[in-house]
Write a structure and sequence with these properties.
heterodimer; A: 96 residues; alpha+beta; elongated; B: 197 residues; alpha/beta; Spore Coat Polysaccharide Biosynthesis Protein SpsA, Chain A
Chain lengths: 96, 197
């Protein structure tokens, strides 16, 4: 019965994403609702939610970039420095 | 780099590391946490390269890893290229295991993921196919890579290349994350099977 309720709620959240965050406010500890809320937030993120920053060399141009390395980080301060260093040590050119 | 609204000092660490870097770096600092697929997709959206390499923040790419993958992908006009990942613990101690260690077939993705996301992808393909599927969140935690690779292997227009060399280090995930992914496995599997099989 419980899983049927979650299936129905999932369908509602899919068509009405803000519902996900509303459900989580009702039951903050619920694992399903945490995921639904994250889905909701992902649906509404646009440029207004992003603060862009670049390093100095970025202004010299990015026209001939072959490879972009994407590192996504959520609470990985302990490790992310090593991940970045490994990219900075790459033997290939035309990288961002 | 996509900083997905961390509550630790990730942002500070990132800014310190890239300040003196000799390659162009962009940081997308999000003011809300949208999850891994969303973060990767935003990275794809603003990427300048023809190819995109996905690196999780706790993993490491070997110095020659990208050049190996890029040469193979470019030569074969591949949609994706991947190599072996050596599994290590949090202190980078070798655990004697490998991930992404062979080329799987499409049908092997029906019940289980076969490859890690740490690979090189054609940027155009990721954009045309809307990248990583955020809807996986409605079905469970983790397993984003599973959906992406299933899509790539199902698509007959794509070609995937495997390099039988270690291209990076993969940190074994904490028990809690593994448990989340295992708990979500059957729901994720059902979703992927409905979508692709």
């Amino acid at each position: 019965m419980k899983s049927l309720i979650y299936i129905i709620l999932r369908l509602f959240v899919k068509s009405l994403p803000p519902l996900g965050e509303f459900l989580l406010r009702l039951k903050p500890g619920n694992d399903h609702f945490k995921r639904y809320a994250q889905f909701s937030r992902a649906q509404r993120i646009d440029e207004r939610n992003i603060l862009f920053s670049h390093n100095d060399i970025y202004s010299e141009g990015t026209e001939s970039i072959d490879i972009t390395v994407i590192i996504s980080s959520f609470n990985y301060a302990e490790y992310i420095g090593e991940a970045i260093d490994s990219v900075l040590k790459q033997e290939c050119d035309n990288l961002e | 780099m996509v900083e997905d609204n961390s509550s630790d000092n990730s942002g500070e660490v990132i800014q310190k590391r890239i300040a003196g870097a000799d390659i162009p770096c962009t940081v997308l600092n999000l003011d809300t946490n949208g999850g891994l697929s969303n973060a990767r997709n935003l990275g794809v959206q603003y990427a300048k390269g023809d190819y995109i390499f996905v690196l999780d923040a706790d993993n490491i790419i070997k110095p020659d890893g990208l050049s190996f993958l890029f040469q193979v992908a470019q030569k074969n006009h591949a949609t994706a290229a991947f190599g072996k990942l050596q599994v290590v613990d949090h202190q980078l101690k070798d655990l004697g295991q490998y991930k992404s260690a062979r080329m799987p077939s499409f049908h092997e993705f029906k019940h289980k993921n076969q490859l890690d996301a740490m690979a090189l992808y054609k940027a155009e393909y990721l954009r045309e196919t809307n990248g990583f599927d955020v809807e996986m969140l409605l079905h469970g935690w983790g397993n984003e890579d599973w959906e992406m690779w299933t899509k790539i292997f199902r698509d007959s227009k794509t070609s995937v290349k495997f390099i039988d060399e270690v291209i990076g280090l993969y940190r074994a995930k904490p028990g809690s994350m593994v448990a989340d992914a295992i708990r979500s496995h059957s729901n994720n599997a059902a979703y992927i099977q409905r979508k692709y099989f």
